[in-house]
Amino acid sequence: MGKIETDILIIGAGPVGLFAVFEAGLLGLKCHIIDALPKPGGQCTEIYPKKPIYDIPGMPEVMAGELIDNLLEQIKPFSPTYSLAEVADELIKNEDGTFDVISNLKKVYNAKVIAIAGGLGSFEPRKPPIDSILDYEGKGVEYMIKNPEFFRGKKIVIAGGGDSALDWTIELSKLSKKVTLVHRRSEFRGAIDSVEKVQKLKDSSVINVITPAEVIKLNGKEKLESIEIIHNDVFKTIETDFFVPLFGLVPKLGGISNWGLEIEKNSIVVNNSLDYQTNIPGVFAIGDINTYPGKLKLILCGFHEATLMCQSAFKIINPNKKNILKYTTVSGIIGFDGITKKTDNSIIKKIS
Do domains 4-123+249-350 and 127-245 have the same CATH topology? Predict the structure, then answer.
């Protein structure tokens, strides 16, 4: 099989990578996306598809999975192609200025520009150091909440003090029989609004909040039946159906870490004064995977980064062509200056 050629090779099919397809499409640039997961969406699809997001402009509330569906619909006119369940492994700079990316399946992708939009990279949950916790995985211990309905009518203990722990405490309180939030500190490090909502739920006895406290033991025969915590030097047993430790994810860059990129604390350093280009000309990093002074790991910030990246990508790909900014409110999307064409009803075109 020969090389798969494209204008921009996007590594990562999360929301930022998908939106980059839209911005590139407006400029007449073709995109191919590689993602390690079997379907587009990144964490929004794989980890919290039913989690509401509140800071997407124009959407007072949107489920993470629904946001991905909308993005896929938005980029459909530009006919991106995908290589899913595949990992970008090796980077080669060619004499003609293009790049070859070799995947873990030994497929070769040739592009004039590389856009790394890998979110946190490949990741795995941080697991608390509790004896026998591995024995209860899938039997009452869950590290991610993909479908809240799975917990309807159940007793749940959530451990953690960040946004994820707070947000899921709020959401699961609406359908679970009993939710207990345990945190080793008295202060939470999540959004102020979320902390206030949890406080109100506690004050109204909708949920239990135990701080400072730490889960030290899991009990049960064939599945989890209870947990033991230490709270103010007192040991206490809590009956529960599920224990959900939400201590964040451990990110890994994988093969990308060997590309010669400038890395800082597992993030790719970029130039944010212009276009989020890395120390390798023609290779960009957008979204949660990059870092620069003042960086905010928000989806909407990643959308902005993707927009500026595509403008610079156009100049690299078309050095002798001037790009005149045109607004979608004037020109529309379908048939944008003859660039795009209507496609069939399929959302994803897959390359095997």
Answer: yes
